Q: What sequence folds into this?
């Protein structure tokens, strides 16, 4: 118990020696952890939304009304025979009208002015693998019953590509800042170890184990890393809560991340910050103890 | 208590610190280790507390075969020893009391024991008037006494003193030697390295004489010639 109190007391004495370096270290850890938290949360939001979209209609084939309904039926039958296709729904002109009225119910002027005769009937195709949309487009091109083809996959591909670029950029930044934090922790510990070199020498002479000598340094590194990470996680949760009530969440994105995901992410980051501090302290005082 | 058999210590680069040294020291003895600078006195002591590792031979200290003692066991050995160096190595920002209690804190004593034991050690080294003084306010002799008190914190079986009077004038050297003899009479085995002939010749104790890393003589009531 007395040994523990020595370790705890000395952890804070060590930190008091270099307060500015300690603050700089915590800030670097904070920025790095915040980037990791928001990047991973953002990616989860995009994945949730794309998966939601991907579960819906993947290809819409607008039909030419000048062609007979028999031709439409033949087209539907041939589509259903493709192994890539899970389901095909015929969407008649009247159904298209109802859908239009529903989608634009907040704009009655627009609904009144539209000539619903121009709305085509369509086949809405759901694929087993959404990335096969290009295959369907190629097969349908040139078919006289087809007026136009739209695939949601193109938009999703563009969004995922943009998201991946953002995730990679943010990850590179996070790694660079984490590296800076790592160097700062090592530097802080080395300065403290240098200032305490006589004390360390006496401790070794008295028979203190190297683990016991290391403990205040290990606690210091873990404390700095943990404080920075916890504040970053707090900010991260705040950003998510704020975004849920924002304009973006009411329009395109559903900014919902499962609690399980957020708790796992939080615990993972905390564990990483402990390991980060542990590793940095190991490197930081290795030389000081071997002297 | 201590047994060395054909111990040699050769540093990297080939310089020989000790060559084929064999001796033994019994419990309760007071032994002077003498010889000119560079004769191997400090190396001899450092081998005993595993600061250095013997190149050849076997060493036994306080009933532990330390010849191939793993690094993680060195603290176990050192907790049985008291080590006093020529430079007292005190913590400048702590008082006499705190410098001594620091050792007890490291050894895991609780606060009440620390207070009691520190006071006992201060009594033993007769530093009552300097309890709350910082190292820079102490004389060389007082600093050495603090260093001795700190070394005694673990109730060591063996006290290793590496030229503790090296920086002191003759009167203070006699005081420190008298103190070490008092500690020895209480049951602690003491080995004191010195090149102060006046102390050795006056005390009539066992003397091990080293020269160029070799044990030249071992006399029960030796003299420094």
A:
């Amino acid at each position: 118990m007395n040994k523990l109190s020595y370790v705890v007391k000395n952890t804070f004495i060590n930190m008091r020696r270099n307060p500015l370096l300690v603050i700089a270290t915590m800030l670097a850890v904070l920025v790095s952890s915040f980037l990791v938290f928001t990047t991973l949360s953002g990616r989860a939001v995009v994945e949730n939304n794309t998966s939601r979209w991907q579960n819906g209609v993947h290809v819409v084939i607008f039909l030419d009304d000048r062609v007979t309904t028999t031709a439409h039926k033949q087209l539907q039958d041939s589509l259903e025979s493709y192994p890539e296709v899970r389901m095909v729904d015929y969407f008649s002109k009247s159904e298209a009208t109802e859908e239009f009225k529903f989608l634009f119910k907040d704009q009655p002027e627009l609904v009144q002015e539209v000539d619903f005769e121009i709305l085509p009937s369509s086949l809405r195709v759901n694929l087993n693998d959404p990335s096969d949309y290009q295959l369907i487009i190629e097969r349908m091109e040139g078919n006289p019953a087809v007026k136009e083809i739209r695939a949601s996959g193109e938009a999703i591909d563009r969004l995922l590509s943009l998201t991946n670029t953002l995730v990679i950029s943010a990850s590179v930044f996070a790694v660079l800042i984490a590296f800076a934090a790592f160097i700062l922790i090592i530097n802080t510990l080395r300065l403290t170890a240098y200032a305490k070199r006589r004390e360390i020498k006496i401790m070794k002479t008295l028979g203190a184990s190297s683990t016991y000598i290391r403990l205040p340094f290990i606690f210091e590194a873990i404390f700095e890393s943990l404080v920075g990470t916890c504040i970053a996680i707090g900010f991260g949760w705040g950003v998510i809560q704020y975004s849920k009530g924002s304009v973006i969440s009411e329009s395109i994105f559903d900014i919902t991340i499962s609690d399980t995901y957020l708790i796992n992410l939080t615990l993972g980051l905390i564990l990483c910050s402990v390991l980060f501090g542990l590793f940095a302290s190991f490197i930081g005082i290795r030389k000081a103890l071997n002297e | 208590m201590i047994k060395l058999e054909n111990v040699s210590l050769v540093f990297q680069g080939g310089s020989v610190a000790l060559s084929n040294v064999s001796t033994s020291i019994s419990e309760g003895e007071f032994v002077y280790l003498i010889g000119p600078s560079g004769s191997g006195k400090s190396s001899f002591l450092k081998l005993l507390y595993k600061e250095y590792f013997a190149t050849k031979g076997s060493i036994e200290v306080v009933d532990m075969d330390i010849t191939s003692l793993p690094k993680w066991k060195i603290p176990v050995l050192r907790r049985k020893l008291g080590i006093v160096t020529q430079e007292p190595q005190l913590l400048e920002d702590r008082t006499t009391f705190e410098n001594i209690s620091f050792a007890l804190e490291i050894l895991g004593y609780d606060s009440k024991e620390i207070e009691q034991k520190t006071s006992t050690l201060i009594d033993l080294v007769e530093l009552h008037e300097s309890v709350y003084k910082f190292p820079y306010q102490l004389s060389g002799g007082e600093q050495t006494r603090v260093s001795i008190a700190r070394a005694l914190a673990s109730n060591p079986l063996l006290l290793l003193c590496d030229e503790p009077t090296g920086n002191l004038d003759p009167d203070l050297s006699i005081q420190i030697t008298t103190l070490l003899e008092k500690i020895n009479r209480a049951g602690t085995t003491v080995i004191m390295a010195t090149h102060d002939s006046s102390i050795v010749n006056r005390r009539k104790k066992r003397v091990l004489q080293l020269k160029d890393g070799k044990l030249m003589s071992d006399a029960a009531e030796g003299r420094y010639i």
